[in-house]
Amino acid sequence: SCGFFAVFGLEETVVWVNKPSPEAKVFYAFPKHANEPMFPGGKVVKALIGLQNNGKSNFIVDNIEGGLRYPMDYNYVIHNFTSFRYGREVAPGVTQTFLYMFVPSEQLAGGSRTFSLVMSLNYRGE
Questions:
Q1: Which of 56, 119, 120, 125 is the most buried (most CB within 10 A)?
Q2: What is the pTM of this model?
Q3: C-alpha dihedral sign at 34, 91, 10, 82
Q4: What b-and-e string marks burial along 34-54, b requiring 16 or more CB atoms within 10 Å of the CB?
């Protein structure tokens, strides 16, 4: 079987500010791949990404995007995935979960190469 080895990582990107909000907690899960270190090439992979708002004002989730990166240099993008736009408010004291789906290329599957998966949840304060 072919697949991708992925280092699961989640980047938080705050629009207008270069660091994540201390009032936000982000978490993720791969329901169909919870105990697997590889994703199948050419098949849809579903990720659930949650944002918990521990602050006193709304957050707005603009989009989620992802891709495979070279593990030795995250600036080197191997494969970009679709950016999903949400435009959803997350009120104070609320946790909201977002579905993000992507399809790793079959051409990159197999072999001894490993890639890091990076997903970015782009949100901003209201």
A1: 119
A2: 0.78
A3: positive
A4: eeeebbbbeeebebebebbbe
